[in-house]
Design goal:
Layout lengths: L8 H12 L3 E6 L2 E9 L2 E5 L9 H8 L1 H10 L7 E4 L4 H10 L2 E5 L9 E4 L2 H12 L5 E5 L4 E8 L2 E10 L1 E3 L6 H12 L19 H9 L13 E3 L6 E2 L5 E5 L6 H13 L4 E8 L11 E7 L5 H6 L7 H9 L3
Antiparallel strand pairs: 1-2, 2-3, 4-7, 5-6, 5-7, 6-12, 8-9, 8-14, 9-13, 10-11, 14-15
Length: 331
């Protein structure tokens, strides 16, 4: 099957890179993209996108359950922000909010940002966030909000391949362009596509969205305002917001992450026995070791995205799909 006929972006890149490397690669079941069968030098394996044949079943189950994941991470001495698990916004949830002043709420056993609400600092918002999370999971995790920025470290076979930073979209003035022009330029720069036409995770900022226009109005600005040189405008408000509604700028921080934090990411993957993982970290400074003041691990993803790393990791030596395929056939 031609990679261009495959629908899943990860599978397209795996098939394309495999053939470049002389590896036979086809869907195991014609018309089904859940499994790819790869053959190389007399060895045949079956994988599920970026989930390898080497990962134990238990590892995937542990990674999906945030409570179990955090327990094992803490046992290994790794930094995890304080949290509780509840089924409703009762007294325990309110006490936790009052203790930490700001929290995030997320479904206990879902992946990505579905049902996640950020920056909650009021009881009524907490109740609404718990209701939203319970649409996706019977139990809900309420976690201490960590000041800083989100990072994703890609780990393959016990090695930290690189790190990406995800920042809520912002624009910076040049003294000539309007806010609308700067937003359109941001969309063009971030909406990168690979050789088979698939884009990364960036959600283009809608210049006509009501939330954006209201946010600009609160700042005393409009789409036609011209920003001064170096003037920065955040495109999303600082209040509580659903995580999947935020457009995030992606930046390569592979050269900036400290050796300590890279090792923490590797240890986090090992703690859950996940051989190919995306380690979500939130911290103030990725160059400094994680601790109570600088942040911690938010999640271990057992089916990590490799499209963003393939688009944003810089340097010819960082080919994430090649690294993945080489690992699959390592003895």
């Amino acid at each position: 099957m031609n990679p261009y006929q495959v629908q899943n972006a990860q599978n397209k890149q795996i098939m394309k890179k495999a053939r470049e490397m002389g590896i036979e690669c086809e869907p195991l079941i014609p018309g089904c993209e859940d499994f790819l069968e790869l053959s190389y030098r007399g060895k045949t394996i079956v994988i599920n996108k970026t989930r390898s044949h080497k990962m134990p079943l238990m590892a995937g189950l542990l990674a999906k359950n945030k409570d179990a994941s955090n327990l094992l991470l803490r046992r290994r001495g790794l930094p995890v922000p304080d949290y509780i698990v509840v089924s409703q916004a009762g007294e325990e949830a309110v006490r936790f909010l009052n203790t930490h002043r700001m929290v995030i709420v997320k479904p206990l056993d879902t992946s990505r940002s579905v049902g996640v609400t950020l920056r909650i600092d009021r009881e009524d918002d907490l109740e609404n966030a718990v209701k939203t999370a319970r649409l996706h999971s019977e139990q809900v995790m309420i976690q201490q909000y960590v000041e800083g920025t989100d990072f994703r470290v890609l780990v393959i076979g016990g090695k930290a391949i690189g790190a990406l930073e995800y920042k809520p979209a912002f624009i910076e003035g040049d003294g000539r362009s309007t806010i609308e022009q700067l937003i359109r330029k941001l969309n063009e720069d971030q909406l990168r596509r690979n050789s088979v036409g698939d884009a990364g995770s960036f959600q283009p900022v809608d210049v006509e969205s009501k939330s954006l226009l209201m946010h600009l109005q609160e700042l005393g600005k409009s789409l036609q305002a011209v920003l001064e040189q170096g003037e920065r405008v955040e495109l999303f408000s600082g209040g509580n917001i659903l995580a999947d509604g935020i457009s995030e700028i992606v930046l390569d921080r592979s050269e900036d992450i400290s050796a300590v934090n890279a090792n923490i990411a590797v240890e986090a993957a090992k703690a859950l026995q996940v051989d190919v993982a995306g380690i979500d970290i939130r911290c103030r400074d990725i160059r400094l070791p994680l601790n109570d003041e600088n942040g911690g691990i938010l999640e271990v993803n057992a089916l990590p995205d490799m499209i963003d790393p393939s688009l944003f990791f810089q340097g010819a030596s960082t080919d994430v799909f090649q690294s993945y395929l080489q690992y699959l056939f390592e003895e």
